[in-house]
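ugh ok so i messed up the first submission bc i forgot one of the chains. this is the corrected input, ALL of the components this time, i swear. 223 residues overall. if the numbers dont match what u have on ur side tell me asap before i send this to the collaborators (the ones from the other lab, u know who)
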Amino acid sequence: SQQGEEDPQALSIQEGENATMNCSYKTSINNLQWYRQNSGRGLVHLILIRSNEREKHSGRLRVTLDTSKKSSSLLITASRAADTASYFCATANTDKLIFGTGTRLQVFP
Amino acid sequence: DGGITQSPKYLFRKEGQNVTLSCEQNLNHDAMYWYRQDPGQGLRLIYYSQIVNDFQKGDIAEGYSVSREKKESFPLTVTSAQKNPTAFYLCASSPYSSFKNIQYFGAGTRLSVL
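and heres the new structure output, hopefully the right one now
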């Protein structure tokens, strides 16, 4: 069964706007990872946040993790048309990496 | 897509036929994984291997088989027992034998049934 549920399922914004995607999960984790998938391609790792971390930045990406609420968010600032893709969270523990269903982001020029 | 090569990009299977999807990595990673992705869904784990000559079933192993004779290669066979094989198949690898590690993905193989 899939543990990560993402919200929204789809998001459309204009270039320059910020995009926020949320991920909720059900059990304890070691870390939470975010991946990006361009249409018809493989996944690319974006950022990993450990269970004892609350926030992490990488370029225009900001990830937060709230283990008490079992949720994470991915913020993409100043979005570009090239950010158009599906974004997946994946929760990791010792014996599993479980992917969510993804958020489809469309950024219009 | 890093150093992981999946082939072919597209594959068609006839009724009752076994087909094999190739996955090769030149990253010297210990662990390799096979996932299935259906439209609008996340990835589901089919099989994984943490070391050469050893592999484990994932969540949806029925109708699939794998081998890991070499560190760099982890082919997946979709057997005739898999009644609904149409999907996008992704191979991944990670440096160490733990699900806590980042995974690196190939470009995928899209399998369709004729």
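quick check: The two ends of chain B are 28 Å apart (CA to CA). that seems consistent at least. Chain B touches chain A through 24 residues (CB under 8 Å).
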